[in-house]
């Protein structure tokens, strides 16, 4: 359970890319707290999405914070480009390189919030020695690379462990993968306060439904944390 404000971060990976700017505006107007942006390189993960050029083009359509999830390796050479493109939070995988401590410091040196993320097979203990260098801790609840997968239940245990590791620090605890209004309650109870949701918000790509879908996830999470 968390006392931090609940934030909903729709993932634009499930947006209709042929009208991406409008899809970003639509989730902004529908109440998104963050815009979650999944960057994939076809190497660290078996899919390719988009990079800094696309991010800077959608930066013009919303003032909401950009929560940029980098699924790329190596990551260090690209931190500055994503900072310049308009990222507010830059989240890197602990598995993506040997110099996580340095990478997190490089993100903060750009004036951005430093996020760290672990895959389903990586234990929370991998983050013990970098916890004082992060602003956001993300638990992947699917194997990264694709939207629309099912939530891995063991992620709830990892959330509780991550919550204990965070202790009283000012760090957001985010969950990503298979989040729906049906499981948001148990996810909140396990300690997450930032909810990434791709297919469960963008399902059908009908902007008229986005506000209700975001509200349903938020309400399910807040009912538990209230
Ligand atoms: O990082 C990723 C996938 O690698 C995610 O952010 C997905 O985009 C979430 O999609 P859903 O599981 O919510 O459909
Ligand atoms: Fe993501």
From TrEMBL:
The keyword Manganese applies. Catalyzes the reversible epimerization of D-ribulose 5-phosphate to D-xylulose 5-phosphate. Belongs to the ribulose-phosphate 3-epimerase family. It is an enzyme of class 5 (isomerase). NCBIfam families: PRK05581.1-4, rpe. The keyword Manganese applies. Pathway: Carbohydrate degradation. Substrate binds at residues 11, 69, 145-148, 176-178, 198-199. GO terms for cellular component: cytoplasm. HAMAP family: RPE. GO terms for biological process: pentose catabolic process; pentose-phosphate shunt. Its cofactor is Zn(2+); Mn(2+); Co(2+); a divalent metal cation. It catalyses: D-ribulose 5-phosphate = D-xylulose 5-phosphate. This is Ribulose-phosphate 3-epimerase. Pfam families: Ribul_P_3_epim (PF00834). Binds 1 divalent metal cation per subunit. A divalent metal cation binds at residues 36, 38, 69, 176. It comes from the Bacteria. Keywords: Carbohydrate metabolism, Cobalt, Isomerase, Manganese, Metal-binding, Zinc. One of its GO terms (molecular function) is metal ion binding.
